[in-house]
Amino acid sequence: MASTITLAAGIPLTGYTATQVSNLSTDSIVKMSTQQVVQLSESAIGGLTSVQIQLISTTNLQAMTNTQVAALSSSQVSFLRTSQSTQLLTSQFQSISTSGVKGLTTAQISNLGSPQVKALKATQINALGAVQIKALSSASVQSINTSEIQDIEVAELRYLTVQQVFTLIEDQIKMLTTQQVANLNSTQVGAIEDTDLSVMSTAQVGAIRSTQAASLTTAQVQALTSAQFASISGSFIGGLGSTQLNSMESIDLEQLGEGQLQSIGSSVLSQLATSFISRLSSGQLNNLSGTQVGALLEGQVSSIPSASLFKLTTSVVSSLSTAGLRGLQSGDIKDLTSAQISSLTTQQVGGISTTQVAALSSAQVQIMGSSQITALTTSQVIAIETADVAGFGSLGLSSLRAQQVGSLLTTQIAALTSLQVAGMDTAQLQSLKSLRSLHWP
User: Fold this and answer.
1) What Cα–Cα distance (Å) separates residue 109 from each residue in 69, 85, 251, 419?
2) Helix (H) / strand (E) containing 408
3) How far from each other are the two terminal CA atoms of the chain, in whole angstroms?
4) C-alpha dihedral over 16, 19, 20, 24, to 10 degrees?
5) Cα separation of 388 and 382, whole Å?
6) Mind listing the pLDDT tens digit for each residue in 359-405?
């Protein structure tokens, strides 16, 4: 077993081996001069034991050259007391090897000063483990050079606490890679400050996944810019709930395209406020899928501006549920085009209210197909305005079922033309309430 070496004052240590250094007495370490410290070679530094390292004074520690600091192993670095590690000069801290950085304890990391953290190189940042990242104070996180934020491993970035994410400054947020953004957990994304979120690039925002989007607050949604909304994925929009979507500003809502809109689930769509639906353009409404259109409720359809209604495609109109179709006001019914009227399914025709039927113009009644006319209920037939009865062509009138003909009011019967009556079959004529009320001009 090697004997303990006690140094005489002023003895030079040039040429000392790691073994000799490891055998230096504790008293020798304590009394070592700064001149002796700098004489130690890198290999000799490797001989310092845990006890010896903790006995090195602050003066001697700061006297070590950057090369000597770089020679410290990960275990030697871990032996440093926090009072020692916090006293390392920034140039020394920047000289710690990547393996040495891995030896930093959570206690050491949590007590680091901002200048030391700012001094970390990209390779050192990249060497930090998940537990070490989590141990950084909020002030330390803010001190990481913006150019080195990208060097934090994706897997380790997920260990940032909510408070750490919240304290990230704008310049740091802007430097995150799309891969880093995509791999943040939902809680972390929800912790990004509103102003920080607004400075993210369109590529960064576009990398946000649906589960992450679901965690955004309404304030964060409102902080997003129009350019960001124009670039976000359908997955992002699909992750937003009705409360988040309802909070969107009009100028942002205008940016949503077909792929984004079609990502909104039907259940979410049916919960959207009328203020959201009313702000959609006719082009955006036409971009909705048939399933989505069918999910629109009466109040939502009612909120669609009249100027947009007559621009809806026949596909959209025919996809409205009977409940949704009842949301059309009388004035809106009159504005429906011939193509839109013709596109109504028999189920839709049979489901509209008598008030809506009464709002149909003669021209609209005239272009209704035979299957649509047959689908009218007796209550709806009665609701057709007398002046519009003449709108039924002989072909349209012949499509009325006997039961429908029998429900006609005397005023409606009186409005029938001789040509219309001539086109009736026997069953229809027999169903008339009173042949005596017939009137031929």
Assistant:
1) 17, 9, 45, 96
2) none
3) 132
4) 130
5) 11
6) 998 889 888 888 999 999 999 999 998 888 877 766 677 788 888 88
Calculate the dihedral angle through the C-alpha atoms of 152, 158, 160, 166, rounding to the nearest 10 degrees.
100
Is the pLDDT assigned to residue 141 strictly greater than 80?
Answer: yes
| 59: its two tokens | 């003066």
What are the φ/ψ torsions at residue 131 (nearest 5 degrees)?
A: -65, -35
Domain boundaries, the chain: 1-49, 344-441
pLDDT in tens, 273-318: 999 999 999 999 999 999 999 999 999 999 999 999 999 999 999 9
How far is 325 from 415, CA to CA, in rounded Å? 29
Query: What number of other Cβ atoms are within 10 A of residue 273's Cβ?
Result: 16
CA nearest 271: which of 240, 249, 250?
Answer: 240
The answer to whether 398 and 425 have CB atoms below 8 angstroms apart is yes
pLDDT at 260: 94
219 HSE (CA, 13 A, CB side): 8
Round to whole Å and give the CA distance between 375 and 358: 16
